[in-house]
Fold this protein.
Amino acid sequence: MIVVPGPASRELGRRVAEKLEAKTVDVFLKRFPDGECYIRFESEEFQGEDVAVVQTTAPPQHENLVQLFLMADTLKDFGAASITAVVPYFAYARQDKRFLPGEAFSVKTVVKLLENCGVDKIITVNAHNPKVLKNFNIPVMDLSAIPLLAEYFKREGLVENAVSLSVGKKALTVASEANSVLKGGFDYVPTQRDRVTGNVTLEAKKLPVEGRDVVIFDDIISSGGTMAKAVKMARENGARKVYAACVHPLLVGNAEEKILGSGAEAIVGTDCVPSKVSIVSVAAVTAKTKKKQW
Ligand code: R5P
């Protein structure tokens, strides 16, 4: 097996290769003056190999997606027997249907493009709607990093008997997963998204957090607006310490400032998206899944 750490996930790719005790082939990347990407593998020896290419598609998502397409298609040209795309953050996963008439079903288009570039399987982590990803031709394995995040809080002793909260009722399973580690009970912060503006509002709710430590879990922190509002709500309900945890810390603009400013002790994320808060690694769980037959 060969692991290719893509330009957007070089560190995670190397960690996955170490866990798999697999050889790595590096990728040289440069940009042409007009912004186009140039990709060159340091070896062409992929004939008959089982290859895992690790490339997140966090912002700049278009560039990272194009790099992934170029890598997969080139691996196919070089005779790779199978190509697994490890895409820890799956761009466009939030547009998982046509919410309004005339809209693009973006996640479908991205999966189709990967398939056409020769990708045989996809491994992703806490994709926005894993069920939708299962509806296409290529098998998709969606992993959860929520237990890893919860274990981090436990291991570091950051919270005591903490309440696990999810953002939105649909994500209550996330809070329940975290609770299986933190064991302080779980609940959700109710949200509503305006389909036209994309703005998220929080509905009023009495949360069972008075005098308690709280960890709020979300799959993505993008602009930070949703998490900042959830932290504020937990504080207003009398929570003691409140932490923000997410799998994909996109942290666009002043997201971090917003969340810390609303009363969070810290933000903890994973290396699905490299950032200054990407403390928890998904390498081991990814490598374990790559080894399995599915
Ligand atoms: C929503 O569906 C997601 O789970 C996140 O809550 C959302 O993407 C966060 O976005 P933002 O940080 O921009 O509020």
